[in-house]
């Protein structure tokens, strides 16, 4: 069944799409900064607190370097730094696009991101990735 949405003025549409556009602008600015300021050079970014305190890589270690590599169109290096972060980008873009489209159309934005089973599966995958990259046989996942 198709949902009928009342006609909206241009100002209302613009106002409703401002939050997704704001998120896109902030994300783009952060991505541009990380692309311009090399995380491989010491002194630009702080060390990962988890790595500093434990000596183990967290699931996010290497994500800045991966985004820097993606900013320079180097997918192979990005996957070498943090394949999990690179693999999640298409999903994040999809969810942002769905949010922006629903906002533009004036449809209610869903309050849940996904079914709880999918969120728990993602949580388990992040933990397994973090553990696996610190083992000898998972060393290829380390940044």
Structure overview:
The protein has 143 residues and is mostly helical. The chain has one domain (10-141). 62% of the residues lie in helices and 0% in strands. It is built from 6 helices and no strands. Helix 1 crosses helix 3, helix 3 runs antiparallel to helix 4 (75-81) and helix 4 crosses helix 5. The chain is globular, with a radius of gyration of 19 Å.
Overall pLDDT confidence: 89
Question: What structural class do helix, strand and pairing data support?
Answer: mainly alpha
Largest sheet data: none
- What percent strand? under 5%
**Multimerization status:** single chain
Helical percent range? 55-70%
- Number of spatially distinct domains: 1
Computed over alpha carbons, the radius of gyration is 19 Å
Tertiary shape: globular
Number of strands: 0
Low-pLDDT parts are none
Distance between the termini: 48 Å
Topology pattern, helix = H, strand = E:
HHHHHH
Work out the helix count. Answer: 6
Short overview:
It is built from 6 helices and no strands.
């Amino acid at each position: 069944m198709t949902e009928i949405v009342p006609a909206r003025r241009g100002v209302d549409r613009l106002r409703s799409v401002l939050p997704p556009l704001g998120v896109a602008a902030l994300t783009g600015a952060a991505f541009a900064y990380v692309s311009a300021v090399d995380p491989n050079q010491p002194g630009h970014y702080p060390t990962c607190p988890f790595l500093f305190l434990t000596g183990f890589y967290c699931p996010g270690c290497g994500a800045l370097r991966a985004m820097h590599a993606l900013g320079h169109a180097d997918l192979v290096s990005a996957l070498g730094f943090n394949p999990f972060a690179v693999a999640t980008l298409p999903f994040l873009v999809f969810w942002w696009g769905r949010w922006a489209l629903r906002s533009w159309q004036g449809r209610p934005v869903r309050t849940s991101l996904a079914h709880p089973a999918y969120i728990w599966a993602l949580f388990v995958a992040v933990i397994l990735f973090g553990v696996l990259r610190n083992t000898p046989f998972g060393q290829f996942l380390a940044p």
